Amino acid sequence: MKLNTESILLSHGSGGAESQNLIAELFYPFLESCVIGSGEDAGIAQIHSKDFAVSTDGYVISPIFFAGGDIGKLSICGSCNDVAMMGAKACYLTASFMLEEGFKINDLSRIVESFSKTLKESGAKLISADTKVLPKGALDKIFITTTAIGEFLYPHLHLSAFKIPKESAIIVSGNIGTHGAVIYSNREGINLNTTLESDCALLYPILEPLFASNLTLYALRDATRGGIASVLNEWAQASNIGITILDSSLPILPQVQGICELLGFEAYNLANEGMCVICIAKSDAQKALEILHKNGASNAAIIGYTTDRNPKRVVLETNFGAKRFLDYPSGELLPRIC
Amino acid sequence: MKLNTESILLSHGSGGAESQNLIAELFYPFLESCVIGSGEDAGIAQIHSKDFAVSTDGYVISPIFFAGGDIGKLSICGSCNDVAMMGAKACYLTASFMLEEGFKINDLSRIVESFSKTLKESGAKLISADTKVLPKGALDKIFITTTAIGEFLYPHLHLSAFKIPKESAIIVSGNIGTHGAVIYSNREGINLNTTLESDCALLYPILEPLFASNLTLYALRDATRGGIASVLNEWAQASNIGITILDSSLPILPQVQGICELLGFEAYNLANEGMCVICIAKSDAQKALEILHKNGASNAAIIGYTTDRNPKRVVLETNFGAKRFLDYPSGELLPRIC
């Protein structure tokens, strides 16, 4: 598949098939020889023979304030979670703020306060920051880019999307699709009259007890843009395995299910900001679930298994035994979801 | 000085007095306890007892293509230069691209090509990257944020803005104000009919011979937003010293001087993207100049000295012996200069 367009499309940023294509067709050909660690949530750097994890993300969410969070909290959780997916604890963070002329000081103040509160929770230190102000109209309100640097406190972990064996179990650490449903209903002006909040949260604290256990973890990935559908497809392709998911086992809040039915979405395609997919030895899955439930991840659930059938594909099994392929989400999905 | 405004102003991003004020009055009160290494170009991180330098910057320049460079080249040089100012060589780089829907694939391709070329020159590896696409109108074309991680190959260096002694010499590594003059004249539609180009370049290669020497270097800073006027004022305040600059010793290209006279600017307030200010022991200044001249910095010049008179202030001496304070640039200066 080539980039058969002259212009950037919204779908190039969706986290689905078109995003993969933009990276593969435009970025990689130039950058190939100077890229390391591609295909994981964070890269592994090495200085003086010491490994550490590094991950960067730009946050452009709209609206900037939403139920359960704001762009400041999101920009810390997102990058800290990315290094957590490699098993690393964020110890340093950088932040670049881009502000629109005329942006309200009060709003900036709320955002910096929440950024700071979440940073303190994470335990990471802000090591470098930058602020740019652009003329009115040159950007919409505020964008934040953060880079997290994480250290490996549990060196026995060797998490990778590329070495997942067949016959391992797939767990999600919480309800799926909540962040996406909150942002979408907010933008569509749907008044939910509920207490539904984005799941935006730091994942390291709920995962650390798993890292400290002697369970056999294969891979972790936070299911942001493109939802769990993207994560599962990436894993199936990277490790050349099949993945079978049981539809009835997916934990979805009733309000989220309602929004999905109203708007014609599937929760497995929607973004999450405080939920990850965990691949673990089948024999350790039940124990992992207990640890997760005990440590704040009360909705964690086993949702499926890896197999040697249908390599590189994800299969969704319904209650009635029907099966269909669960593909990468494609199309525009939801711009500015994170 | 408090933030006596309800909204963000362009001057908050100028790199001058108002930028300092925004940081001090809004960001620091929230972040104080979780910030390290403030006041330098890069922070010093430590993992497993090993130090490394980290610096982040957002690049929002307009126009995105200019004589001597583009936003891709700039985004590598800028962050690599920031860690070079601590004496560190960039070994890893992260990049976050924000793209406007409808941005031309050809333009993106030119930018990624130049980004990649400069990255290869730097010797750093891209360890993490992110691409976001926003709906048309949500940002102007393309913004790039990079974070450079640098290693200290010359551990005898202890560069800091806070420990500059009196009676040291101030050197600039090249002509001043060139980048700012190119961008400004481009935006004003001034056709220069000259070959004037931005100085946008990697600084580590011209500085490494100084690092490898046994000369006594005190501080380095690249003179981006706010020009050398900002750097000198930051140093004077951070180290509680006076700085005297000889107007006639400032290396300025005649075309840049012409643009300054036409537009009413001073070259010492204009941004540079491949030039730094060096503070060095007086007795080593001449030797340093020879090393710089031999290694590609042919316009490097000694421009002044630190003193114990007028602590925290910078004094500009003209040819005729007149003296005046050279203050932080203030006001709007030039938005989107880098």
List the helices and strands and how they pair.
2 copies of one chain form a homodimer.
Chain A: H1 17-31, E1 43-47, E2 50-59, E3 65-66, E4 69-70, H2 71-84, E5 89-100, H3 105-122, E6 125-134, E7 142-151, E8 168-172, H4 178-187, H5 204-212, E9 217-222, H6 227-239, E10 242-246, H7 254-263, E11 276-281, H8 285-294, E12 301-307, E13 314-317, E14 323-325
Parallel strand pairs in A: 5-6, 10-13
Antiparallel strand pairs in A: 1-2, 2-7, 3-4, 5-7, 8-11, 8-12, 9-11, 10-12, 13-14
Written description of the protein model:
2 copies of one chain form a homodimer. Chain A has 338 residues and is of the alpha+beta class. In chain A, the strands form 3 sheets. Chain A has a 7-stranded mixed sheet with strand order 9-11-8-12-10-13-14. A 5-stranded mixed sheet of chain A has the order 1-2-7-5-6, covered by helices on one side. In chain A, strands 3-4 form a two-stranded antiparallel ribbon. The first copy, chain A, has helices spanning 17-31, 71-84, 105-122, 178-187, 204-212, 227-239, 254-263, 285-294; strands spanning 43-47, 50-59, 65-66, 69-70, 89-100, 125-134, 142-151, 168-172, 217-222, 242-246, 276-281, 301-307, 314-317, 323-325. Chain A is globular, with a radius of gyration of 19 Å. The two termini of chain A are 27 Å apart. In chain A, helix 2 (71-84) runs parallel beside helix 3 (105-122). Chain A is built from 8 helices and 14 strands. Chain A folds into 2 domains: 42-151, 2-Layer Sandwich (60s Ribosomal Protein L30, Chain: A), CATH 3.30.1330; 168-325, PurM-like C-terminal domain (Phosphoribosyl-aminoimidazole Synthetase, Chain A, domain 2, Alpha-Beta Complex), CATH 3.90.650.10. Chains A and B meet through helix 1, strand 1, strand 2, strand 5 and helix 3 of A and helix 1, strand 1, strand 2, strand 5 and helix 3 of B. Chains A, B: Pfam families: AIRS, AIRS_C. Chains A, B: It comes from Helicobacter turcicus. Chains A, B: Residues 39-151 form the PurM-like N-terminal domain. Chains A, B: Residues 168-315 form the PurM-like C-terminal domain.
